[in-house]
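ESCALATION

Customer reports they have been waiting on this structure for their group meeting. Please prioritize. Original submission:
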Amino acid sequence: MPQSPIEARLAFALKEASVPFKEQVSIGPFSVDFLIFSESGQPIFVVECDGANYHDAERDTSRDAAITEHTGLKTLRFSGRQINSNLSDCIQNIQHQYASSIESLSISRLGFDSSQQNVVFAPLGPMLVYAPAGSGKTRALIGRIVYLIEKHGFIPSRICALTFTRDAAQEMRTRISQLLSPTVSELLNIGTFHALAGKLKVTDGRNVIEEDRRMATT
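Update from on-call: job pushed to the front of the queue and completed.
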């Protein structure tokens, strides 16, 4: 889709301000005017431009909420009138949001390649990832956990992360402790498949046995 004059003006100002962005980006079912990125390539928020003479506040609010729900990204919205008359204020607002977003994201310190970013910042829902040895699976999993907690407000104790080795499990717990806090790290259910099975056997084994007996007698 070609740029409107308002979008072109804002794009030029963003380049002048050295704010990393992409234009006309598809995010799931949405096409957004500008997607703002961190220096590591992580999407951090959306900027939308309204037409010079058109503004539907109710529609815009609904759309912005849907984008946040789907992607976890906040939307900054500017009218054409704001961009035409107070472009510097618009850029200052974007720069302020950029700085606060970068500061608040512990995940930005991890650094991901493009494949890992696809995993870490994927929309919520089931996901199956195929990756060879040495491709950074543990790092991507750590990033996904931090992203779910920081951007989507997931409760740490409701997250379960399983690995095949104790070393990988300890790496995950230590790294998350450094990025978030030791308290959050301890609340997470991180361990090997065998450790989880052993924990369930201890905590819920009696319930499983009693349920089996109940079913056997009915």
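Sent to customer with the following note: The mean pLDDT is 83.
Escalation resolved.
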